[in-house]
Amino acid sequence: MSRSRRVLVGVTLAGLSAVLGLAVAASLFLNSSRTVVLVGHDTVVRPTMARDALIQTGPLLPDFRFRDIGPVGVTLTLGKTEVGSVDELVERYAFIAGDPTAQVDKVQGVVVDMAVAAAVRGLGVGLLPVAVFLLLGRHRRGQLFRGLRTRQGLLALVLLLTLPVLIWQPWQSPEETQEEQGEWQTLADFVGPEVTLPDEVRDIEIRTGPVTTESKRLVLSAVDTYDKSKAFYSTAADGAVDLDLREPQEGETVALVVSDRHDNIGMDRVARAIGEAAGATVVLDAGDDTSTGQPWEAFSLDSLAGAFDDWERFGVAGNHDHGTFVSSYLADLGWTMLDGEVVDAPWGGTLLGVDDPRSSGLGSWRDESGLSFTEVGERLADAACAAAADGDRVSTVLVHDANLGREALGRGCVDLVVGGHTHVQAGPDAVAGEDGATGYTWTNGTTGGAAYAIALGSKPRRDADVSLVTYADGRPVGLQWVRLRTDGSWLVGEWEPVTPAP
Q1: What CA–CA distances, in Å, run from 38 to 94, 381, 459?
Q2: For strand 184-186 and strand 252-258, is the pairing parallel, antiparallel, or unpaired?
Q3: How far apart are the first and last CA of the chain?
Q4: Under DSSP, is residue 46 helix (H, G, I), strand (E, B) or coil?
Q5: What residue ranges define each of the domains in the chain, with the CATH number in brackets?
Q6: Tens of pLDDT along 124-135?
Q7: Structure pTM?
Q8: How far apart are alpha carbons 172 and 177 in whole angstroms?
Q9: Which residues neighbour 308 within 8 Å (Cβ) at sequence distance 6 or greater?
């Protein structure tokens, strides 16, 4: 074979491989789907070429459409969720829509992942002609091409070309559905000129249908919640910049403490803004990020992780974070979830923590189950005192309930115990330990502004707190609390120095 012919064959084969690979990749991508937890639902995500985001909400609520979101569109089919009523469900949608960044990022990540997976599979199929070409060899390729001139060869070629059509079956057409009979209207047209809508939602489209009358009431309620929630938390986040907070001095590290968020994602950007104003670079999560610990609450964990994605992040699960879902989910998102082992802290000291034994119902300590709250506290103290004996005194114990660190403080093995749980800020309280040691206990209020285990709403249900811990030379040196009140005003506690000993 001449050089020019070999080049022609190579170019033809490469072109065939590329076309086949692209066709297969595109087909796989557009026919793929993933099920993820989104806006509190098991949600099926499907990419489309429509350039729109279509949200199919189910039989009782209208579908929504966002136009021209990008080069690739997406259809989100909402499935099962945990909810008490349709009104509560719609209010939840509105609240999440007030700060949808984490959910949008999650969808984008899923679509990109599907595209990459389809591209890899397409590449594999595209390389198939090259592999067959090389495997057959020159002699067998010649026999194959000569065989195409026979009747059997022509029949085989026709069957080969017919195979994709048989798989595709273009003659099949879907049945007409009620969904297709609905018409799309902008939200502004749907609610009418008598209702003033926020500018950013006026062009969202809604599919009208047989439940339009009831849907209109629900949509108006959701818009009202959305407007109030977005305004309240946006104003609070902007106002946090001007708070009178102590700024860290050279060599100091500030950690932001959050606890008892109970799904209030609106407070995440506010907490971040407070932390930035105080120069914080570390976040300590004392648990109760959810109300039930169920997968439908993943939207809360996505929001928390997104708000602090460039900080050092440590956490434990609270008593309302039932089961292992919360801890494992945050760990998958890059958080260091403390499990009873002493770890190095970003401020140069060491950090110890463990999930609330009431959170999982197992009371587990590593591979041991059935331990009580008191027994887990004793194990925590054992770990802290063992580290102190090795010359690595624990600077901070992070737990959901500060009482879990009471034994460690009593033995004089830790500098500071930080928790939440009570929804009421308390401390710093000095605790005298053995051999003249002194440690401190600090309880953060509820960052979500939760009443009991409920925090969802257009604003906090009660005052919302975060705390700031200042470290120097690997040990805590001061604490300060910050409180956003339900009327949007601020209270800032005095920075209180702490002097743990020895």
Answers
A1: 14, 39, 22
A2: unpaired
A3: 86
A4: strand
A5: 1-126+173-242 (no CATH), 257-497 (3.60.21.10)
A6: 888 877 777 777
A7: 0.82
A8: 15
A9: 272, 283
